[in-house]
Design brief:
Structural class: alpha/beta
Strand content: 5-15%
Shape: rod-shaped
Number of strands: 5
Helix content: 40-55%
CATH topology of the largest domain: Alpha-Beta Plaits
CATH architecture of the largest domain: 2-Layer Sandwich
Number of domains: 2
CATH class of the largest domain: Alpha Beta
Length: about 230
Amino acid sequence: MAQDNLELLRRLETQQATARRHAVWISWLSVLAAAIILAVLIFAADRHLEDAQAKKTEALEKAAVEQNRVEQLKKEEARLTGRIKQLQPLVENYQAQVRAEPSPATQREVQFPLGPGPGVEVPAKPRVFLQIVTPEDREYAKQMSQHLEEAGFEVLGIEYVERAAALKNTEVRYYKKTDEPDAVELRDALSAAGVKSPALLYLGLENNKKARPKTYEVWFGAGVGSSPPPQ
């Protein structure tokens, strides 16, 4: 009897040990499965994060390109706006001349100021002819000539041009592209002397032998001398 009970106890212990081993294996398998699943999830999340980061980087690069494009367009808009503003006085001059002299031919006739003929040497100083369209502006032109002489220009004279009486705004005319830097300086000197919004006018006479180098014309708008320039 005792021997049977002992045998039964041993069997129970063996079954319990086997059950514990099975439980341990199942636990380890569960942990392993959970680890595998976790690793897969981490890998998937990492790939998703990498994709998201790549898309974010691509979006930022596109945004930067678009921002640069917008900035370039703003600069171009500002440049064109400034150019339109510079051309507005010339447009007003043409409109005034057309109203004063209605004619199918509205192209400006270029008449060179009196002076030495072609073939002379390039002068050391830029030379300027002053044109007035009303006699009352002569004194104003004389005062402007003093300002221009002080600015480094050689003023060769003042001419009254009655036929251009419709001119509304002051123009700085130059014949060739190579003379543009001096023309810009001449315009700026006039502005600094008090002339309101002088406009540059390129006449495009690149192949005209009568067009002398470093020679410019300032055409004062009618009534420009109504208010005295600053001293």
